[in-house]
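Here is the promised in-class demo. Please do not try to memorize the tokens; focus on the logic of going from shape to residues.
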């Protein structure tokens, strides 16, 4: 396997962390008899030689040795190595992997079902003989005994259609045949998912109803299989070809149902394996179908309704995550789907309940239809109100945070208990705005908690920060005396952090914070000058005091200083005309798109929406969607003067896809941020 490995000048080759001199050790580790060593070596291959999908010269040098490893039956868990080769070949290593594509022909008939499963897609990707590939797929479909491999072969047929449209007809005929009886529900679901993606004209008109029915059949088969396995005290043997699949396991050698992995090994590869759904095949089948349906939100909503009302908890758990994908990517009326996700908050099904909590937390205000079951869970489980964090700190527990983010006022008395703890959760201040005026009863408690903090004690800044954020969100003028006390008496080492949070409160309070003016003026010459200037403008607008500070801060070395200063200059409006040269330069030259957007928006706020600046904003709106909220916030303040850019808002509210979906990933704030953008756009349309 390793003949010639020492003849490669690995030290002169590179990987993600420099010289590839350590690669031979990793390659040999992949063939180790020790499962932990194998998994660690595979983890390191992804972490260095193929880091984040990159292909280096050392990656290409590894390919011949990886091809030898996967051919050797003595090497354990070869399916993971086939997956690695596929990942390399999908990138810049396509040529190197394609040169060894004959290996995948051999592996398609390997005794190990996991290897056969991984090889199915590799055949289509790297063997440049369409007729031979199709013949091999047809042959394997006729004799393959393992359900999971059959599903991989069905996926490979769909991939074949997309890669070789000129040879697609026989493959489509195979898929169409496998989507009907006498094939079992799992194979039929797999075939329907592929047809929906590459030949939607060949799927039944009642696709969703058919898919839900097949899902129910599959779940019933899985239940019978589990029952039989329990009754006879052992695994159920693999099914015969043409049957219904092996819902309970891999159907291959080993009988464990999982392809590879060393139990308990703490590696990235191991953690990803352990995070797989309990019914990974079911998740994959339905995810394929959802992907094929794309923007057909009505069909996807109906499909989710069928999944979320399944008697099988695993089906419902898979559906919860797919509901997250629909709501996070597509706008629309999701109340029914959200309500069904809320019905999964069953403490008796911990995995399902945790999934539902996580998803609802990301929906923000759109989680309101699930508020009743969320509240019931929070009331029943006080142990979930907070969770531990680093250094003795706490974080808001998922169910309570989701309830607060939904805007439900029933969270207020529970938050009062949580905020009364010695160390309030870090997120308390940032989520309180979700409750709006309903959170007002918490102000006296927050002020008392702030008053209880000794100004000169270690950790005061950390304890005060969440309280100050909460008070800023609530506009609590009663807090000003305590804020001044902390700023005056707090230790110098943490005064900077305290100031940032305290000045944010004062900026939110406006004229009610007038007693802080002397301290704010003094802070204009500190490291927190930008935050002080913003607060001073809100409390006592004095252009002569704040404008020079903001101009200076707008060219600061630190990006956060610059962004804050530019945002405050936009608030000054026409009073900041002296800053226009700096703002125009930032709008034209800043490398960061957020900075350019903020600067161009500030120019509009100061001078009005000129043709030049409007064109910058229009380009940024189109090319950099994350900047849209910054631009929209300024356009709302401009009122009728924003009319030249009104069409941006008009087009945005008509788009079915969320602007945050263009990031290529999902974050917990994606849905709330997109909903905020829609609110701003509607306000622009009203004002213009």
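The designed amino acids, position by position:
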């Amino acid at each position: 396997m390793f003949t010639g490995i020492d003849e490669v000048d690995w030290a002169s080759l590179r990987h993600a962390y420099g010289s590839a001199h350590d690669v031979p050790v990793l390659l040999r580790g992949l063939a180790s008899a020790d499962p932990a060593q194998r998994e660690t070596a595979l983890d390191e291959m992804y972490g260095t030689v193929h880091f984040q999908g990159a292909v280096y010269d050392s990656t290409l040098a590894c390919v011949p040795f990886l091809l030898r490893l996967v051919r050797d039956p003595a090497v354990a868990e070869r399916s993971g190595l086939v997956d690695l080769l596929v990942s390399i070949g999908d990138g810049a290593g396509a040529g190197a992997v394609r040169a060894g594509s004959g290996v995948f022909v051999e592996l398609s008939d390997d005794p190990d079902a996991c290897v056969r499963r991984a090889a199915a897609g590799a055949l289509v990707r790297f063997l440049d003989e369409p007729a031979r590939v199709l013949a091999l797929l047809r042959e394997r479909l006729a004799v393959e005994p393992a359900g999971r491999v059959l599903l991989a072969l069905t996926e490979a047929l769909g991939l074949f259609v997309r890669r070789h449209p000129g040879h697609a007809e026989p493959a489509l005929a195979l898929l169409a045949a496998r989507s009907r009886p006498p094939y079992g529900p799992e194979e039929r679901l797999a075939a329907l998912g592929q047809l929906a993606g590459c030949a939607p004209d060949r799927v039944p008109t009642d696709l969703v109803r058919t898919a839900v029915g097949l899902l129910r059949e599959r779940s019933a088969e899985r239940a019978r299989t589990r029952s039989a396995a329990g009754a006879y005290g052992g695994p159920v043997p693999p099914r015969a070809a043409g049957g219904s699949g092996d819902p309970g396991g891999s159907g291959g050698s080993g009988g464990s149902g999982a392809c590879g992995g060393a139990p308990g090994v703490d590696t990235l590869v191991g953690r990803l394996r352990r995070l797989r759904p309990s019914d990974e095949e079911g998740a994959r089948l339905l995810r394929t179908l959802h992907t094929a349906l794309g923007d057909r939100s009505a069909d996807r909503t109906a499909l989710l309704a069928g999944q979320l009302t399944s008697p099988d908890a695993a089906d419902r758990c898979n559906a919860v995550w797919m509901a997250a994908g629909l709501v996070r990517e597509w706008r629309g009326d999701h109340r029914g789907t959200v309500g069904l996700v809320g019905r999964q908050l069953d403490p008796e099904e911990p995995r399902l309940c945790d999934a539902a909590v996580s998803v609802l937390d990301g929906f923000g205000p759109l989680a309101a239809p699930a508020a009743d079951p969320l509240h019931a869970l929070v009331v029943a489980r006080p142990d979930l109100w907070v969770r531990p964090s680093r250094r003795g700190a706490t974080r808001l527990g998922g169910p309570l945070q989701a309830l607060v983010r939904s805007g439900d006022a029933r969270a207020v008395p529970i938050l009062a208990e949580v905020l009364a703890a010695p160390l309030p959760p870090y997120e308390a201040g940032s989520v309180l705005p979700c409750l709006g005026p309903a959170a007002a009863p918490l102000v006296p408690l927050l002020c008392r908690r702030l008053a209880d903090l000794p100004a000169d004690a270690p950790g005061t800044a950390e304890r005060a920060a969440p309280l100050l954020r909460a008070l800023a969100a609530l506009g609590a003028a009663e807090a000003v005396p305590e804020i001044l006390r902390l700023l005056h008496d707090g230790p110098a080492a943490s005064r900077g952090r305290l100031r940032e949070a305290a000045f944010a409160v004062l900026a939110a309070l406006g004229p009610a914070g007038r007693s802080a003016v002397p301290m704010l003026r003094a802070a204009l010459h500190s490291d927190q000058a930008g935050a002080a200037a913003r607060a001073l403008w809100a409390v006592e607008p004095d252009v002569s005091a704040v404008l020079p500070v903001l101009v200076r801060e707008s060219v600061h070395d630190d990006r956060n200083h610059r962004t804050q200063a530019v945002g405050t200059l936009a608030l000054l409006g026409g009073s900041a005309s002296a800053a226009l040269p700096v703002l125009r330069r930032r709008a034209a030259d800043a490398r960061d798109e957020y900075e350019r957007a903020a600067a161009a928006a500030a120019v509009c706020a100061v001078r009005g929406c000129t043709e030049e600046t409007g064109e910058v904003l229009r380009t940024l709106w189109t090319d950099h969607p994350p900047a849209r909220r910054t631009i929209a916030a300024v356009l709302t303040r401009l009122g009728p003067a924003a009319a030249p850019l009104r069409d941006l808002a008009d087009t945005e509210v008509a788009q079915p896809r969320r602007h945050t979906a263009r990031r290529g990933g999902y974050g917990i704030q994606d849905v709330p941020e997109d909903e905020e953008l829609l609110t701003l756009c509607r306000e622009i349309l009203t004002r213009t």
